[in-house]
């Protein structure tokens, strides 16, 4: 009976591991495609729309999250050489920087869409003619802020800890973390809470503006204006779907993390589910952007 339960646990763990690797593989390919597609106008020398700059930045962050997602598990599943201290520090640092940039980019995307959707706002007037440069500086700031915010991380991460237990082979592949105090965790939560609050605020504001757009659309007779309103509405709906996906994945990840920390005898499958949720948004967000418009994967709000 004990061996049967053990085999079932192993089967579930392997199944979740395969699902995680499939997510990483599919998400990486789709994000690379999205990045190249949004960067192609810049490479061709044509003018790049501001929204495409943000989406290229988001795709780059997603790709790094997926490439550096949980190297411990991938190394256990596909054994190679043992991770060194430098690899552990660099991998964990890049993953956290990409995660922070991903959150900042999502915040920038929802805020920019709100500004372009609101008629006659001071923000739209300020962005007129200077939007590409302003958006580029915002993306650079996201990366710089993320690097500075996580500069202390390499000091808290080290290579696999040596143990006297030779039978525990998995411990040789696992990077270790130490010194994360309660204060640091509170600061990390506050960092996430600020971005999540801005994202929710901009999303709620967009819903209100979309409702006003719908009321105004009933009194419009011009076909051109109706077409423009439909394009703006579709763009805002896409961004709202993206934001809802992000917030949902983040909240579910937080719940799984709390459960994993609360229970000393935490299940292995719970950790696997947490890892799958952590890479869900980087995997599904580019698919959402692509399948919202099959003819042109990135033409969503791009009339801005």
TrEMBL record:
Main location: membrane
TM helices/strands, residue ranges: 12-36, 51-70, 193-210, 235-261
An annotated GO cellular component: plasma membrane
The entry's keywords: Cell membrane, G-protein coupled receptor, Membrane, Pheromone response, Receptor, Transducer, Transmembrane, Transmembrane helix
Gene Ontology terms, MF aspect: pheromone binding; pheromone receptor activity
Membrane topology value: Multi-pass membrane protein
Name used for this protein in its record: Vomeronasal type-1 receptor
Gene coding for it: Vmn1r169
């Amino acid at each position: 009976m004990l061996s049967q339960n053990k085999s079932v646990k192993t089967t579930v763990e392997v199944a979740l591991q395969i699902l995680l690797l499939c997510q990483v593989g599919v998400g990486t390919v789709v994000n690379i495609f999205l990045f190249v597609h949004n960067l192609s106008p810049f490479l061709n020398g044509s003018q790049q729309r501001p929204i495409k700059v943000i989406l290229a930045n988001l795709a780059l962050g997603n790709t790094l999250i997926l490439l550096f997602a949980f190297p411990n598990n991938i190394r256990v599943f596909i054994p190679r050489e043992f991770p060194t201290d430098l690899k552990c520090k660099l991998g964990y640092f890049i993953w956290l920087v990409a995660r922070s940039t991903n959150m900042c980019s999502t915040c920038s995307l929802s805020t920019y869409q709100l500004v372009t959707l609101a008629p006659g706002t001071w923000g739209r007037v300020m962005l007129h003619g200077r939007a590409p440069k302003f958006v580029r500086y915002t993306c650079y700031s996201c990366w710089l802020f993320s690097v500075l915010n996580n500069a202390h991380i390499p000091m808290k991460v080290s290579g696999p800890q040596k143990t006297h237990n030779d039978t525990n082979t998995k411990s040789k592949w696992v990077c270790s973390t130490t010194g994360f105090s309660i204060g640091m965790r509170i600061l990390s939560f506050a960092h996430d809470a600020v971005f999540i609050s801005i994202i929710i605020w901009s999303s709620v504001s967009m819903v209100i503006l979309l409702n006003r757009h719908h009321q105004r659309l009933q009194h419009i007779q011009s076909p051109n204006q109706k077409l423009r309103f439909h394009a703006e509405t579709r763009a805002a709906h896409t961004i709202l779907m993206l934001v809802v996906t992000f917030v949902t994945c983040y909240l579910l990840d937080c719940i799984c993390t709390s459960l994993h920390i609360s229970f000393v005898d935490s299940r292995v499958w719970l950790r696997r589910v947490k890892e799958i949720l952590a890479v869900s948004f980087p995997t599904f967000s580019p698919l959402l952007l692509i399948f919202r418009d099959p003819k042109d994967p990135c033409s969503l709000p791009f009339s801005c």
